[in-house]
Amino acid sequence: MKKETFTFAALGAALLAVAGCASTPSSSDLDREAAAVMKASFRDQGIAKTDRLNQDLGQAACSSDKPPSDAVAQQVMDQARAAVKWPAGGQYIGDWREGEKLAQNGRGMTWTDASAAAKDNGGSCYNCHQIGKAEISYGTIGPSLYNYGKNRGVTDVAAPTAQPIVEYTWMKIWNGKTYNACSNMPRFGHMGLLDEKQIANVMALLLDPKSPVNQ
Amino acid sequence: MTKQRFTLAAAAVLALAATNAAWAQKSAADGIAEYRKMLEDGNPAELFEAKGAELWVTKRGPKNVSLAQCDLGKGPGVVKGAFVELPRYFADTKKVQDLESRLVSCMEMLQGFNAAEIAKTPFGRGEMANVTAMATWIAAESRGMRFNLPQGHAEENHSYEIGKRAFFYRGGPMDFSCASCHSVDGQRIRLQDLPNLTKNPGDGIGFAAWPAYRVSNGQMWSMQLRLNDCFRQQRFPYPGFGSEATVALGTYMGVNAKGAESIAPAIKR
Hints:
Chain A has helices at 2-23, 27-41, 57-61, 70-82, 96-104, 125-128, 148-151, 163-174, 196-207; one strand at 42-43. By secondary structure, chain A is mainly α. In chain B, strands 6-5-8 form a three-stranded mixed β-sheet. In chain B, strands 1-2 form a two-stranded antiparallel sheet. A two-stranded antiparallel sheet of chain B has the order 3-4. In chain B, a hairpin with a 2-residue loop joins strand 3 (187-189) and strand 4 (192-194). Chain B is globular.
């Protein structure tokens, strides 16, 4: 008898749920519909084609006001780490002066840009980060990177003791999703926004003890 | 001696400024605020308002009639207060529409213009420039009023839900969504303050400031153009004028801004 009551109650709840579905779309229905609305609302313009709306795992997982589950976040990070490309010949560190130019340059990849080649892109770093002290026009979406190398005890970028932070920094710039599935930072290496040499120059800006960032 | 002491004091202040980045930043932001205040003494948006007001009552289009009977949501011809309740659902088009897409519908239904042609026209040109001018005037007629979008119709609530998902939709080569820049309080891109659009960001901020006159390029920017340029910088493809995603984003931002005072048309750097 008790069991029967429970069954009826469960059936009632199920019916209610079905009725609810019929009148208001569920959250996942809305997700699907919103994706279709996005596809229908945009068109190609210059280098910015509608295929930019096709989401990979990480983009889809981080497209809500709620973070993804731990399992999905781990999957995003694992995929990101597996795809990191290390610099040819171990050339992690370039010229900080060129890195500063890239950090200042916020151009590239919009529909008003002629080319999507890395050589035509900037790093947009100051848009979101404080970096060199001389530049007071910096954004605050990302953490301050002033004294980045100094604060991490880097006195010689070639020293074996510096290697872990050098590799970590390369990974963060290559693909920030290696350590934070829903990082706001563009995946500069992974998405081809900057090439290896450009990334090495940004690396120098952050890590070279001679860089103004570390004075 | 006095002079020397002054110099030392000034140097100390400068040193303080240099060691306290937040102070220096605030000071720069204050400078910009002052600059904006100065600009408000004469907002060229007034010229667009005047043009829009005249267009509204002028007999135009293939049918040679005015827009005096256009229903912006509060009944035919009612302009005051319409802006702070848009986007909303319209039974005649069976769609949720924002101010600009509604204007284009009125131009088609009443005056006989081709809505699809207008939607394809670049900002600042031809009939699109007229739509922007009328939107500027209509917004100005609600200046000082508070946003209060209706959410009673199922389609209005639906538009909000789609808009919320569009707001958080990541894509493109830089993985950006609207939320990348507009979901946290007090953040900046360079020195530009970023409103948090997931809630009421305050009177005259965000949704409550557009249309706005852009001093940097000397153009009148409607909300559709504001969204268009956001998507350009988001590295997205090109949003259609009045497309469902853009209108739904308007619903999302407008509902979130409930209670915010409209200062539109504003003036921006």
